[in-house]
């Protein structure tokens, strides 16, 4: 007995999920969400990058009296 097209799609999706490949509704692989952090002073959200340039410039421009550690607790910044 042949299965329907929908059954075949579900079987293929479950096989991909077992293999660790999860697709979104458009059929493309889902991307992992980018890690973010928020400013401790004004609660603005930022993506965490290698150099964190946006966070440094934000802290210097918006909160000159606060340190980087006060704005982004727990983050490490390279000089």
Would you mind describing this structure in some detail?
The structure is a single chain. This protein is mostly helical and 79 residues long. 37% of the residues lie in helices and 8% in strands. The chain has 3 helices and 2 strands, in the order αββαα. The protein has helices at 5-19, 53-62, 68-71, and strands at residues 36-38, 45-47. It has a two-stranded antiparallel ribbon with strand order 1-2. The radius of gyration is 22 Å and the shape is rod-shaped. The model has no long low-confidence stretch (mean pLDDT 85).
Question: Would you spell out the secondary-structure blueprint of this structure?
Answer:
Blueprint: H1 5-19, E1 36-38, E2 45-47, H2 53-62, H3 68-71
Antiparallel strand pairs: 1-2
Question: Nutshell version of this structure?
Answer:
Helices cover 37% and strands 8% of the residues. With 79 residues, the protein is mainly alpha-helical.
Order of helices and strands: HEEHH
Distance between the termini: 67 Å
| Largest sheet composition | 2 strands, antiparallel
Rg calculated over all Cα atoms: 22 Å
Shape: rod-shaped
Helix content: 25-40%
Number of helices, where a helix is a run of at least 4 consecutive DSSP H or I residues: 3
Percentage of residues in strands = 5-15%
Class from secondary-structure proportions: mainly alpha
